[in-house]
Amino acid sequence: MYQTIRERISVVGVYREAQFVPKKFMWQNRIYPVDQITFIAEIRDNQVGRRQYSIVSQGNGYRLIFDRSEEVWELAELWCE
C-alpha cells in the first residue's frame, strides 16, 4: 500500500525527445537514483496541470509529482509493504 508523504523534493533529469526524464531525486538529504519509470500521467486539478511519475529506486516504489504552475516537485507517496 502507498504511504502519503507530500514533501517537496529536488529532482534532476534530462530532456529526451521533448519529454522530461527524471534521473534522481533528493529527499531528506539523501539522493535516490531513478532505476525505472513505470508510469507517467498528466493530471488536471481545476486549471493546475501536474505530471505524475511512478518510479522505482533501489527496489522501492515512489510517486513524484511536478506542479507546472509553481514549478515545484513533490514526493507524493512511497510504496510500503
3D architecture notes:
- It is a single chain.
- This protein has one domain (2-79).
- It is globular.
- It has a seven-stranded antiparallel β-sheet with strand order 3-2-1-7-6-5-4, with no helix packed on it.
- Helix content is 0%, strand content 79%.
- It is built from no helices and seven strands.
- The termini are close together.
- A hairpin with a 4-residue loop joins strand 6 and strand 7.
- The protein is mainly β.
Using brief descriptors, characterize the structure shown:
about 80 residues, mainly beta, 7-stranded antiparallel beta sheet, about 80% strand
Strand order of the largest sheet: 3-2-1-7-6-5-4
Strand content: over 45%
Secondary structure: helix percent? under 10%
Number of helices: 0
* Sequence stretches where pLDDT stays below 50 over 5 or more residues: none
